[in-house]
Amino acid sequence: MIKTNREDYKKELEEVIYMFSTGEDLTIEHSQEEKGCFYVDSVTINGNAFSFENYHEPTDNLDKKRFEKRFSKLALYLALTKHYNVKLPWGALTGIRPVKMARDLGENFENEFTSIFDVSSKKTALVKEILENQKGLFDEKGEYSGLFVGIPFCPSKCAYCSFASEIVSKSKFVNEYTDALVREILSLKGTLKKIRSVYVGGGTPVCLPDENLLKITSAISEVVDLNGLEFTVEAGRPDVITRENLTLLKKAGVTRICVNPQTFSDKTLKLIGRNHTANEVIEKFNLAKSFNFIVNADIIAGLSGETLEDFKNTVDTAISLGADNITVHTLCLKKGAKLKAETERLKVEDIDKMIDYSYLSLKKAGYKPYYLYRQKYAAGNLENTGYSKTGKECIYNIDVMEECSSNPACGANAVSKRVFLSENRIERCGSPKDIKTYIEKIDKIIEDKAQFFK
Questions:
Q1: Which helix (H) or strand (E) holds 386?
Q2: What would the pLDDT profile of 222-254 be if each residue is shown by its tens digit?
Q3: Is-contact 262 269, C-beta < 8 A?
Q4: What are the residues facing 53 on neighbouring strands?
Q5: Which of 84, 236, 273, 339 is deepest in the core (most CB within 10 A)?
Q6: What's phi and psi for 188, nearest 5 deg?
Q7: At the top level of CATH, which class does the domain 145-410 belong to?
């Protein structure tokens, strides 16, 4: 039994409980509010009380709430570490942007990470390394923007995926969606300022018919001067990458693409719902490199049934292919994913060794970690890290993950952001997740976005 005086943060406290992944039935009850200090939270487990106090003076109500929530979770974390006699790699941190938090804390972040939030020295050092590698790339003044365009279609549905996408061969909305998306993109003409990156994501954008893909890239070129700009398209699945659509992307000014194997095990690929083999990944990867694209490869640690040796083979193969970027994801349970429906908790043997192996191997091969984010319900409470060869970093990834730049976004389930760095504030404007609803409401979406960026 857990008791806390912050019942309003029950959801956040449940996230802390989940990180320990014990399966023990722990329930949260409200207790009488503590008195006597500016911030104080307490939890009681099996009659043993723990508390944490922080006398930080908030600058405003938003700041006050942020710190109250942060230290409510910390109080519970400290209680659970004592109750279970175990510590977690990221300590009490549950947020997805530890690098951003470190930057906000300033030069003393290492001490606060380790002494207050109980972050391990290894993860604290990783954050410090990423901060160093972002120098010269991070938008210090928040004066730039990155355009996102979402394509919610895929050739099949992966077991771990929670994106609101449809299987392209079964969808009735491919042409209607393309037309609505083109209208939304063109509506931004004349309103976008200082765009330094464009990112077309999904889904799997290249699963669209070439004529649809051409309409979308042509609309982008009408509203953005692509000369010298970073322009990324998630090609993603090798089973839909062709010489024809790569030629189309090259002519459209695309500079970067993603060819995402996730694993180089044929057995695992079949198990997770991907309709291609490891050899097809290698074949299409080499084809993409022949077009002189900067190529990223996504891989996942902890996929169902995979051993440490399986993951080592995936890392080694991605390196041998000469990927410019390699993003290492930790498997996590996502709401709406098939995996989440079938699995209550992730218990992956050697997950920490997998992540450690990727870090050491990629560093040895000349890659640098340059951005990082975390997700709820990740195996081992671990992280996702993007590695890059020098000069091949994806600016869009940095801007989005560190929330230092505004982000106009088009498409179903796309969320536009306006970032006000000087005020430590972000405003958001989201579009409907459902494809049919997005198409039906496109006029209203365009109108709302015009007001949002006015």
A1: strand 384-388
A2: 999 999 999 999 988 889 999 999 999 999 999
A3: yes
A4: 40
A5: 236
A6: -85, -5
A7: alpha beta
